[in-house]
Amino acid sequence: MSFVMKCLGINENGNLTIGGCDLKEIAEAYGTPAYIMDEDEIRANCRIYTQSIKDHYDGKGLVLYASKALSCKYIYQIMKEEGMGVDVVSGGELYTALEAGFPNEKIYFHGNNKTVEEIAFALSKGVGRIVVDNEQELSLINQLSGESGITTKVLFRIKPGIDAHTHSFIQTGQIDSKFGVALENGEAEQIMKTAHQMPNIEVVGVHCHIGSQIFELAPFELAAEKMMNFIADMNDRYRIHIHELNLGGGFGIKYVEEDRPVNYDRYIQAVSRVVKRVAKERNIALPSILMEPGRSIVAPAGLTLYTVGTIKNIPGIRTYVSVDGGMGDNPRHIMYGSEYEAALVENPNGEKTNTVTVAGKCCESGDILIRDIKLPEIHSGDLLAVLSTGAYNYSMASNYNRIPRPPVVMIQNGLPKLAVKRETYEDLVRNDV
Ligand SMILES: *Cc1c(COP(=O)(O)O)cnc(C)c1O
After folding, report:
1. Quick one: pLDDT at residue 173?
2. Cβ 108 vs Cβ 157: under 8 Å
3. Beta-strand runs (E) in 24-104
4. Cα of 393 to ligand 1 centre, how many Å?
5. Residues 216 and 262: beta-carbon distance below 8 Å
6. Of 45, 72, 203, 291, which cross-links 297 as Cys (Cβ 3.0–4.6 Å)?
7. Is the pTM for the entire model greater than 0.70?
8. Under 8 Å between Cβ of 406 and 34
9. Which residues in the chain come in under a pLDDT of 70?
10. Closest by alpha carbon to 234, among 182, 185, 286, 189?
11. Ligand 1 neighbourhood includes 212 CB (under 6 angstroms)
12. Which helix (H) or strand (E) holds 14?
């Protein structure tokens, strides 16, 4: 039997394991619901990316973990140890990274509406780069940098006109996005010229992020090509030397059996070829390459453990299996209709004879985790693991219905360690006055 997650197994008791740890024992020790993650797998995923830059681009680059996928002190500590950079998109993520002792110079600060306070905070902490979204923000950064007597290194978020999702990508004049400045209408060129004249801004790079859960190499190659030509144009026209090319994240992972992710190593291989070719054609220096994987680092390393409660069979319609969590800990189905696989912890290999819908316990009819999944015979009290939930679950969790958020447990070398404690009822009323 194979699972969508590589780090799962079945032990001598017939129970499902993650990173070699019995999930039934973990449930007994930490309760449910709980996010369980294989730290060794997270680290292995980081190493595939860092190694690929060494193998295919002489190490001239940096892999940034896109920390919105899962942000907590523990994960920033892992990233620090793995020699990664991180990207953050808010003052809160930045604060968490700094609290974890993450080196400020390897932090890239993104966002389409950074507040004055956030920018001032980032500058005071000396973040490595700010990825500038628009002209308004650029002036603000220049002004605040001037007041502090510093020069700020910036990249620009550019819309290269490629919109990629899972199995398709389109090349459009895709300028209808709240993020960044467009290539094709001259906005990108204009902001570079403006920035180049500013006394407290140092233009170091350009950035694009073309989508998420992408299974193809072609859209990344196309983005690299367009961005490289833009870098060359800026060099030729204005002598603006851009030496960082950040191609964003979006690499797809296996949520369900049909998903066919590309080996992560191949993205940098494919992109490197394009970058080297255009650099030669256009006679410009090779930029360093940055990439920002989020989902692909943590999603395949995590699952959510639930206990089954009510089972409701509506004859001729469907069977609802309700668990002790739901849209509060995993809002992805209700938001995007995302699909997941699941397994019964104490019967992971059983014949899948029943089609059920896994529902949460929130007061919303749409509070569904998985619609129409085939599972073995299921009973109240069973432990259910929803798989590949390591990204955009804990980080998107809410306290809807005043349900405390689950803990995050990391498995390292076969041993569980708490990374985030379970919230308590006291936590829920902490800020109530
Ligand atoms: C979300 C995001 C990422 C990470 O995307 P994944 O699909 O999780 O790899 C990287 N860069 C930027 C700017 C993003 O907004």
Report:
1. 47
2. no
3. 34-38, 61-66, 85-88
4. 15
5. yes
6. 45
7. yes
8. yes
9. 1, 166-174
10. 189
11. yes
12. none
